[in-house]
Amino acid sequence: MATTIDAADAAPTRTFRTTTSNGKGPVMRSLLIALLTLLPAVVLADPMAIQVDHVWSRAMPAGATGVVYLTVTDHGAPDTLTGVASPVAASAELHETINDHGVMKMRAVESLPVAPGKPIRLSPGGYHIMLMNLKQALVAGKSFPVTLTFAKAGTVTVTAAIRAAGAATQGTGHGGMGNMNGMSMGGSGSK
C-alpha cells in the first residue's frame, strides 16, 4: 500500500496495488471472476441429477406407431421433461392415456414436471412416449437410442431395450395397453 498526498486539498489518499510480486494479479482475478460466473450454469445443467432407467419398447413393424416406457428420477433441483426424440421414428411425443367418460384416449402433453425424489413412471396405461411413423422395424432383443430433453438438465440419451409385442410392464406381471381397440388419439396439446 502506498500513500499519496492530493495537492488540491492536501489530504492523504491511499492507493492499493492489485498485482502480486509476479504481476499476475489482475489476470488471476479476471480468471477467478469468470469461473465463478460460470459455476451456477454448470451446477444447474447437471445431467447426473436426472436418472433414467427401465427403458423399454415393444416390437413393431416399420411404418407403425411405437411406444417407449421408462422411469425418470430427479436427484437434483426440480426439473421438467420438455421433449423426446429418437432416430428410429419420424417424430416422438410425450403422451398420456386418460379415461374420458369410459372411453380410453391418448393425448399429447407439452411437458412433464419432475420433482426431486418422486420418480415419474412412463408406463402402459399412463404417460408414455409415442414414436410416430417408425423408420425401421423394432425387433425384439435389439435396442435403440431415445433422447430426453429437460429444461435444466439438458439432453439425456438412453437406450431402449425392445421386448416382444404384447410384453408386460417390467415387474408388474400384467400386460400393458394390449389391444388398442377403443383408443383414440387426442389433438396435440389438448387437455
Walk me through this protein's architecture:
This protein has 191 residues and is mainly beta. It has 2 domains: 2-44, no CATH class; 47-166, PCu(A)C copper chaperone (Immunoglobulin-like, Sandwich), CATH 2.60.40. It is 10% helix and 45% strand. It is built from 1 helix and 13 strands. The strands form 2 sheets. Strands 3, 4, 5, 6, 7, 8, 9, 10, 11, 12 and 13 form an 11-stranded mixed β-sheet that branches. The protein is globular, with a radius of gyration of 27 Å. The N and C termini lie far apart (68 Å). The model is unreliable at 3-7, 13-20, 38-45 and 170-191 (pLDDT under 50).
Observed structural traits:
disordered N terminus; globular; mainly beta; Immunoglobulin-like; 2 domains; 11-stranded mixed beta sheet
**What gross morphology would you assign?**
globular
Helix content: 10-25%
CATH superfamily of the largest domain: PCu(A)C copper chaperone
Using only CA atoms, what is the Rg?
A: 27 Å
Largest sheet: 11 strands, mixed
Please indicate the percent range of residues in DSSP E strands (runs of 2 or more).
35-45%
| CATH C-level label of the largest domain | Mainly Beta
Quaternary structure state of the chains depicted: single chain
Order of SSEs, N→C?
EEHEEEEEEEEEEE
> Count the strands?
13
Q: Please identify the structural class as seen in this structure.
A: mainly beta
Give the mean pLDDT.
77
Number of domains: 2
What's the CATH architecture of the largest domain? Answer: Sandwich
